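R.M. (postdoc): so does anyone remember the format we settled on? I'll just put the structure tokens first.
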């Protein structure tokens, strides 16, 4: 018979034993995962050789144990290692599987190194190809190579090697410490920025290939730099002179720009406008530069015939032939006869408003080089008399098919505007508003004999009653001095 105290102790011992067994089974042994695969999935890794890998070895991802090696078996082409990974960790499928050793005595493990953090996660049955794996070198081969290296060192000179090594690194403890610490920090930062680094490595081949393909150009550039450097070394005195006198010259240039400051910006602005026009008319400028030398040569050739002769004093050797009215004068497109100036006048007033040019058809055989046939630089194949017509969709329309004015003097048959006559100047103070201006030229114009009306040079209609048919035949000298009346 057990008393109540013993029963309580047995119950507590049983509960503790059950909890300990459950912890051992589910936490440490992970019996459900081992027997039934609960919470795990398997991935196969293809290796060229085992590299000391063994079952129950750890599988690491970013420094965290995420599973273990379930089995390692031979295949016809190498070794296959089956990894049992925990489902709690989502590992990208684009990765490398590297076999490493924890220490020099072994303890291999599999390190999963991701290539892209955005790739799909691994799943049950995935296979990591051999091309994406690596194994450490054979430890025995490493020891043999180290042994051969030590044997190659002359025993007699070993003290010299140690002394020189001390001389090389002696006293560099703080610097080596900084190098190691910096390398560690660099490795940590590289791991944090693994995806950009992997992307940089993946994208670097095109850049490296371009450098390889342009190796000849780089070598040529280096050769040119070497040539320039050699020239600079050869002309060292000249370069030194430039450096010595350069500041003074720069100061003179600065003072020059300061003196030109009020007008230089305006000049540069105008040159910019001129430059735009020059760029537009570049073909025409090139043609002009080609033709000017030939024209100068022809003009100089006019004096060659009389050179070193008795007729040398005559000057240019030219023949002047007078062809009257060949070609005929083109008056179409200019001011009508009633608005034209008298040929006997010698002054030079302002040009009348409007576009004055010969407005006959473009294919006319007369005046072929007139304004109507100017080529449009920005519109190849189009010819027009003005830039505005060149830049627009408007086509040139002749006034008529002849050379004489037709139709109304104040209008045109084609609808194009004609230049308007000059406006009547303002009369001086005290003068009568109806008094005709005295500075206008006198022109002969047709008049109406019935009324004595005629159009003056200013475009106004004037009346001379003494010119009409009803005017008296005899006039007094006073009536002849009276000015005409305008309306």
């Amino acid at each position: 018979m057990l008393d109540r105290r013993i029963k309580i102790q047995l119950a507590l011992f049983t509960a503790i034993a059950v909890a300990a067994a459950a912890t051992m089974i589910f936490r440490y042994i992970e019996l459900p995962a081992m027997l039934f695969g609960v919470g795990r999935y398997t991935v196969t890794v293809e290796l060229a050789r085992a590299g000391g890998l063994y079952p129950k070895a750890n599988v690491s991802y970013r420094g965290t144990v995420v599973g273990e090696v379930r089995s390692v078996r031979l295949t016809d082409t190498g070794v296959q290692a089956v990894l049992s990974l925990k489902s709690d960790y989502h590992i990208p499928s684009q990765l490398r599987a590297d076999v490493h050793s924890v220490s020099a005595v072994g303890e291999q493990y599999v390190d999963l190194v991701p290539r892209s953090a955005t790739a799909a996660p691994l799943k049950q049955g995935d296979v990591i190809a051999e091309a994406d794996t690596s194994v450490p070198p054979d430890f025995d081969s490493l020891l043999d190579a180290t042994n051969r290296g030590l044997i190659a060192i002359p025993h007699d000179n070993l003290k010299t090697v140690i002394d020189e090594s001390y001389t090389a690194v002696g006293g560099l403890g703080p610097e080596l410490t900084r190098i190691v610490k910096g390398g560690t920090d660099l490795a940590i930062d590289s791991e944090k920025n693994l995806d950009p680094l992997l992307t940089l490595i993946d994208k670097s081949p095109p850049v490296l290939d371009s450098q390889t393909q342009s190796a000849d150009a780089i070598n040529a550039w280096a050769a040119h730099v070497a040539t320039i450097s050699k020239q600079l070394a050869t002309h060292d005195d000249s370069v030194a002179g430039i450096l010595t006198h350069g500041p003074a010259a720069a100061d003179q240039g600065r003072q020059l720009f300061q003196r030109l400051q009020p007008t230089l910006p305006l000049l540069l602005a105008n040159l910019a406008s001129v430059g735009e026009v020059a760029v537009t008319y570049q073909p025409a400028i090139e043609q002009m530069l080609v033709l000017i030398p030939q024209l100068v040569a022809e003009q100089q050739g006019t004096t060659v015939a009389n050179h070193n002769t008795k007729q040398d004093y005559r000057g240019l050797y030219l023949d002047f032939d007078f062809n009257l009215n060949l070609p005929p004068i083109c008056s179409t497109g200019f001011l009508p006869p009633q608005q034209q100036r008298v040929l006997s006048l010698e002054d030079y007033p302002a040009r009348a408003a409007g576009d004055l040019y010969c407005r006959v058809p473009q294919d006319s055989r007369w005046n072929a080089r007139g304004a109507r046939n100017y080529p449009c630089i920005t519109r190849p194949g189009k010819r027009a008399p003005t830039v505005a017509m060149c830049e627009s969709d408007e086509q040139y329309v002749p006034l008529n098919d002849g050379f004489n004015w037709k139709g109304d003097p104040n209008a045109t048959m084609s609808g194009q505007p004609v230049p308007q006559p000059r406006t009547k100047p303002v009369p001086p103070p005290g003068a009568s508003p109806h008094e005709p201006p005295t500075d206008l030229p006198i022109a002969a114009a047709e008049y109406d004999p019935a009324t004595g009306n005629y159009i003056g040079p200013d475009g106004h209609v004037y009346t001379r009653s003494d010119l009409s048919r009803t005017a008296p035949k005899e006039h007094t000298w006073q009536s002849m001095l009276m000015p005409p009346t305008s309306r």
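R.M.: ...and that's the designed sequence above, right after the tokens. Also worth knowing: The two ends are 156 Å apart (CA to CA). The first strand starts at residue 40 and ends at 47.
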